[in-house]
Specification:
- This protein is an alpha/beta fold and 411 residues long.
- The chain has 13 helices and 18 strands.
- Strand 13 and strand 14 form a beta hairpin.
- The protein is globular, with a radius of gyration of 24 Å.
- Magnesium ion binds at residues 9, 151, 154.
- One of its GO terms (molecular function) is aspartate kinase activity.
Length: 411
């Protein structure tokens, strides 16, 4: 017997009919003798609608009331799933975040989960009752409802799995696992059998949308094995597949590069002719940090005359206009010749824990791109990742080439 947390996303609970299908997955696990907690998202589209209504009500809304509104979608699906489970003879009850209680900090709209006690849930599960939990929500220290940020049900599920000491957290979604890259771009993309927490964290941060980034962080910290699989597999199928996100040690044969992610949510900014002297970087990035704008890739050229240099960096595309504005206002303070911006860029990243032990991965990548005439505008690396910034028009060409280069193509 195992203790399992099953999470179903918005498309999996989009209609009552689909909720019935979810109930059959739950039934299978219960009949196998497992203790089960289920975490549900809102029906797909619901949260967007709720957010739209809030913004329509007032541009200057109270974030606590935003949370009261947007958390409601999950309340509906948790109740519906409990009802459907009853109808097939399974003991179940719904749980709202405040009833568990799943405690969060007070950052309404993007709250973080604080340590919380899973005892009430465990007691229910031990009595043979399926816990059907509304994802995405918890209760802040001010006793108000708080939500965890868009896509937050993944994080709810992993946090609950950690709190109830579950053997595994199964994330049911609309794809059958994590792929080597986006299959819509590279038809030869393959499902990854096992992926290390660190790799998944990079994949999620760099554009793969299967799991919310924070859920992967949470899984990594608490060592919760996460299994990503499709809710559209027949509930009684015996031959389904998925991707296990787990410890590096549990992966036998690992590739040098496990996956390729890309993100168009980047914009490039160049400051031409900034002084080449101590303190300049602080002057450039200080005002951006004050405005809570995250800077990612940074390239500073060597100055040819010893006086001035050019500095290039990227910011999230959504922050581009604000960043340009901040830098324009700080022109006197920073001192630069010209400010240039470019939103027509994409960040392509190769990810794999195998890079720690293999040399020459980057060179191979740069050569492959050069052969295709693709110019690299910026580079960043970490122990398990190489990211490059290129012109957006070359996205597909680059991703396909790298996918082949690192032997990821499906046979
Ligand atoms: N319903 C919420 C959202 O759409 C949370 C989730 O589905 O994970 O962001
Ligand atoms: Mg999601």
């Amino acid at each position: 017997m195992a203790r399992l947390v099953l999470k179903f996303g918005g498309t999996s609970v989009a209609t009552v009919e689909r909720i019935r299908n979810v109930a059959r997955h739950v039934e299978r696990e219960v009949k196998a003798g497992h203790q089960v907690a289920v975490v549900v998202s809102a029906m797909s589209g619901t949260t967007n609608q709720l957010v739209t209504w809030v913004k329509e009500a007032s541009e200057f809304y109270d974030p606590r009331e935003y949370d009261a509104v947007v958390a409601s979608g999950e309340q509906v699906t948790s109740g519906l799933l409990a009802i459907v489970l009853h109808s097939i003879g399974i003991k179940a009850r719904s749980w709202q975040g405040w009833q568990i209680p799943l405690n969060t900090d007070d950052s309404h709209g993007a709250a973080s989960i604080a340590d919380f006690n899973g005892e009430r849930l465990i007691a229910g599960m031990e009595s043979g009752e399926v816990a059907v939990i509304a994802g995405f929500q918890g209760v802040a220290s001010n006793e108000r409802i708080a939500t965890l940020g868009r896509g937050g049900s993944d994080t709810s599920a992993v946090a609950i799995a950690a709190a109830v000491k579950a053997d595994r957290c199964d994330i049911y979604t609309d794809v059958d696992g994590v792929y080597t890259t986006d299959p819509r771009v590279v038809t030869k993309a393959q499902r990854i059998e096992r992926i290390a927490y660190e790799e998944m964290l990079e994949m999620a941060s760099l554009g793969a949308k299967v799991l919310q980034v924070r859920s992967v962080e949470m899984a990594m910290v608490h060592r919760v094995p996460v299994y990503v699989r499709s809710s559209f597999d027949a509930p009684d199928a015996s031959n389904w597949n998925g991707t296990l996100v787990c410890d590096e040690e549990e992966i036998m044969e690992s590739q040098v590069v496990t996956g390729i992610a890309f993100s168009k949510d980047e914009a490039k900014i160049t400051l031409v002719q900034v002084a080449d002297k101590p303190g300049v970087a602080a002057k450039v990035f200080g005002p951006l940090a004050d405005a809570s704008i995250n800077v990612d890739m940074i390239v500073q050229n060597v100055s040819s005359d010893g006086k001035t240099t050019d500095m290039t960096f990227t910011v999230p595309a959504a922050e581009f206009a604000r960043a340009m504005d901040v830098l324009t206002k700080a022109k006197g303070e920073i001192g630069y010749g010209e400010l240039r911006g470019d939103k027509d860029v994409v960040k392509v990243s190769c990810i794999g824990v195998g890079m720690r032990t293999h040399a020459g991965v980057a060179v191979k990548m740069f050569r492959a791109l050069a052969e295709r005439g693709i110019n690299i505008q910026a580079i960043t690396t970490s122990e398990i990742k190489i990211s490059i910034l290129i012109e957006a028009a070359y996205t597909e060409l680059a991703v396909r080439a790298l996918h082949t280069l690192y032997d990821l193509d499906k046979a």
